[in-house]
Specification:
globular; two-stranded parallel ribbon
Length: 342
C-alpha cells in the first residue's frame, strides 16, 4: 500500500494523544478527529508534537457529534487504517444510558458502519477495555478468574451501583456490538481490539496541577503520593500510557499481525500500595521538602490477565508500575513548580 492514511479518533484524550505521538513516530500519516477546532492548538503546542514537527503528516477532521450517522463520512475519505479511541470515560452521572453506555456502543457502531462504506479501509483497531472481558462479579472477587482477550461478558441492565460499573457495562456492550457487526456485516476490513487496564502516564495535554488531579486514571497513582487514602481495594491492574499507545500502533500492521484478535494491555498485578515506596526512592528530595507526602493508603485487589500475545506484539514485557509512577509524579512536580513560578 503506497500511501497509507490513518484516521485516529479521540486525539484530544489522554490515550488518543498518546496514540497520536506513537503513530507519528512510526511514520504514519495521521488524520486526527477532534470535537472542535479549539482542541487543535493544544495538541500542536505539546512538546512531543513540536519535536516531531509532522507538517503534512498530521491533519485534523472536526467531528462534533460521534453519534451522528454521518459523523465520520468525510473524515474517512482515502483512509486505509483506523484507530478508534473516542469513547466516554467513567464519571458520575444520573443518565447512565444516555451519557455513557449508548455513546460507547453507538459511537463504535457508527464508526464501523462508515468504515464499511470505504473500500480502502483494511483494518480498524478499537480501544476496548479489560473490563469488557469479565463480569462485574469477577471484577469484585478477591481472587478473580483468569481472563483472556477472547473472553466476553454478558450484558446487564440497571440499576447499577457505581459509576465505574456503568463504565464497565458500556465497554461490554461496545465490544459485543463490535463482534456482532463483524459477524453480520462482514466488512472488507478486519478488527483488532485493544483492552487496556488503568492507563497511567504523563498527559501532555494537561497544563496545570488542577487539571491533572481533576479527572482520569492518573489520579489513582497520584493520590497516595499526595497523602490521600482509599479504604476500598482497587483492582490491581495498570498499564503505561506509552505501552498501550504502542500496542494500538503495532496492531495496524496487516502483514505481520493477524486481524480479528484481541490484545490485553496490562503490566501485571499492580500493587497500588507500592506507590509510597516508589515515590520515596525516586523522588527523595520532594518527599523531604514536603511537596510529596508518600503516606497514602491505597489497597489493591488481585487481578489475573493473560497478556502473552501482547508481549509478543511488543517484543518485550510491558513496563512496570514503577515506570508509570515516575512518569505521572514527575509531571505533577513539573506542573507544581511551573505554577509557583507563574
Amino acid at each position: 500500500m503506497s500511501n497509507p492514511l490513518l484516521l485516529l479518533t479521540g486525539a484530544s484524550g489522554h490515550l488518543g494523544f498518546g496514540v497520536l505521538v506513537q503513530a507519528l513516530k512510526a511514520g504514519w500519516t495521521v488524520r486526527a478527529t477532534v470535537r472542535s477546532e479549539s482542541k487543535i492548538p493544544a495538541i500542536l503546542s505539546t512538546p512531543s508534537i513540536q519535536a516531531l514537527a509532522p507538517g503534512s503528516k498530521l491533519s485534523f477532521a472536526i467531528v462534533p457529534d460521534i453519534l451522528a450517522d454521518d459523523a465520520y463520512t468525510s473524515a474517512l475519505s482515502g483512509v486505509t487504517h483506523v484507530i478508534h479511541c473516542a469513547s466516554p470515560i467513567a464519571r458520575p452521572t444520573e443518565k447512565p444510558e444516555e451519557d455513557i453506555i449508548i455513546p460507547a456502543r453507538k459511537g463504535t457502531l457508527v464508526l464501523l458502519a462508515a468504515a464499511k462504506a470505504v473500500p480502502s479501509v483494511k483494518r480498524v483497531v478499537v480501544t476496548s477495555s479489560i473490563v469488557a472481558v469479565q463480569s462485574w462479579a469477577n471484577i469484585s472477587l478477591d481472587t478473580p478468574q483468569a481472563c483472556k482477550g477472547s473472553d466476553r461478558a454478558a450484558e446487564t441492565s440497571g440499576p447499577w451501583q457505581h459509576h465505574f460499573q456503568i463504565y464497565c457495562e458500556s465497554k461490554v456492550q461496545a465490544l459485543n456490538a463490535t463482534d456482532a457487526f463483524v459477524a453480520q456485516e462482514k466488512p472488507g476490513f478486519d478488527v483488532v481490539n485493544v483492552m487496556p487496564s488503568f492507563i497511567i502516564g504523563a498527559n501532555e495535554l494537561v497544563t496545570s496541577v488542577e487539571e491533572l488531579l481533576a479527572s482520569g486514571t492518573n489520579r489513582i497513582a497520584l493520590s497516595p503520593a499526595l497523602g490521600a487514602s482509599n479504604p476500598d481495594p482497587t483492582p490491581g491492574s495498570s498499564v503505561y500510557l506509552e505501552d498501550v499507545a504502542l500496542v494500538h500502533v503495532k496492531a495496524l500492521d496487516t502483514e505481520k499481525v493477524p486481524g480479528n484478535q484481541d490484545f490485553i494491555a496490562n503490566s501485571g498485578n499492580t500493587q497500588w500500595e507500592d506507590t509510597d515506596e516508589i515515590v520515596k526512592k525516586r523522588f527523595p528530595e520532594a518527599v523531604a521538602d514536603g511537596r510529596l507526602r508518600a503516606d497514602g493508603k491505597w489497597p489493591s485487589k488481585r487481578t489475573n490477565y493473560d497478556t502473552a500475545n501482547t508481549v509478543e506484539l511488543l517484543g518485550r514485557e510491558l513496563l512496570d508500575y514503577e515506570a508509570q509512577v515516575v512518569s505521572v509524579v514527575g509531571q505533577y512536580l513539573e506542573l507544581a513548580d511551573a505554577g509557583k513560578k507563574a
